[in-house]
Amino acid sequence: MENNNIKKEENSVERNVNEVNGGTKKSNNNVGKSVLIVIVLVLVLIVGILAGVFIAGNRKDDTDNVQNKTTEVTEKKEENKAGKKVDANKEWVYDADYISKKKDIVKTSDTYHITVKASEEIKLPYININSNDANKVNEEIKALAEKAYTDFGKPATITDAKTNKQYTSDDSFEFTRYSYKNYVNNNVLSIVIQKVSAMVPGDGTTSYITYNFDLETLKLVEAKDVLQQYGFKSQSDFNDKLKIEIKNLEVRGEAVSVDFSKWDEKRFFIKDGRINVVVPGLAMGESIVEVNPNAVANTNEKENTAKETNTQKQDNTSKETNTQNKENTTSQAKITKQLSPSGWAGSSMQEIRLYDNGEVYHVTYNGEGKTENNVISSELIAKNAESIEEKINGQVVEGIVVKGKNVNKVKENVPAWITFENN
């Protein structure tokens, strides 16, 4: 009996111990879970804080970037406003758009197989300089463009070659061709505008308009302002050298003014370190003369010039022909007559020359002038010629005919406007 009571008590104690141990384990588990929750919450809080800092930092950077860009744009505008160019992102000179938005004018002559477009023939510059002088020049150029567009393709007045009476024709018209080039030398910007007053049928006359700007002062300059910079001692020295250059051209038989001692100091430009002057020509409109500060007068004996060189390039049909060309084209040969074709595309840049030795040359210029320096090809086309004359067909001049008792045509493929006739 007592033993049973003892066992019961032992079991009771054991249950109590187990209950205590179980409670402790549950308590420990609860504590662990609480700690874990706290840690998670702390981590979430830290991540949130970091994210907030990151976002705030980005917003600040974005704000700074916007402010910086705004400042840059403002500074650029201020700089451009006070700068040398009207548009800081463009070159000093670029194509003007005075007629680009207008309806294009297209004129076609079926008789002379010519089609011209105002958009292709009128190419004028815009001078991107922020100055009063440049503004005035741009207004002048704009007026040229508008007049050329307004007058483009107007009926041409033709003079009857036989009766000398004038008339107009639907198949004949006039237009002005403008093109330009620009150069920068020693901080001087030169703009050269070539104007060809063309008529279909007929030949065009060439003239030039020049502007020169000092890129520091942004003002127009005259030749006297830059003479010493390019090797001339004085205005008188320059005039003397100009006369020598013109005389040298006369020796070579080129069509420039025989007695040109005065010139407009505004009509010049600088190219490749040399001053070039616009001078009146005898028959072909105006010419451009490059003036060398060391110019020396040439004589006939010294004048082999580019004519021999061009002759070598001309007729590549055979070595024999080239040799004959060189032997027959001597420094003693003189130009006795020269004519330009009429009524053909590019006619104003071409010329037929008759020399006193009976040779006839077809000469093509580069469009910058009509001096020997501007010749891009000079082809011997005939020998034993006695004359070159305009070919008349009814009331219009169609081309040039080479005449003689025994004209020797040495080049087969010649332009259609050149014909040959044996008397």
Structure characterization notes:
With 423 residues, this protein is of the alpha+beta class. Among the domains are: 93-221, Fervidobacterium nodosum Rt17-B1 like (Heat Shock Protein 90); 304-422, no CATH class. It is 33% helix and 30% strand. The chain contains 6 helices and 19 strands. The strands form 6 sheets. It has a 5-stranded antiparallel beta sheet. Strands 5-6-7-8 form a 4-stranded antiparallel beta sheet, with helices on one face. Strand 10 and strand 11 (286-291) form a beta hairpin. Helix 5 (305-314) runs antiparallel to helix 6. The chain is elongated and about 130 Å long. 28% of the residues are buried.
**What is the CATH fold-level name of the domain at 93-221?**
Heat Shock Protein 90
- Unreliable stretches: 73-81, 301-331
Q: What count of helical segments does DSSP give?
A: 6
Q: Superfamily at the CATH H level of the domain at 93-221? A: Fervidobacterium nodosum Rt17-B1 like
Strand content: 25-35%
The N- and C-terminal alpha carbons lie at a distance of 172 Å
Instruction: Spell out the helices and strands N to C.
Output: HEEEHEHEEEEHEEEHHEEEEEEEE
CATH architecture of the domain at 93-221: 2-Layer Sandwich
Radius of gyration over C-alpha positions, nearest whole angstrom: 43 Å
- How confident overall, as mean pLDDT? 76
Given this structure, which CATH class of the domain at 93-221 is correct?
Alpha Beta
Strand runs, count: 19
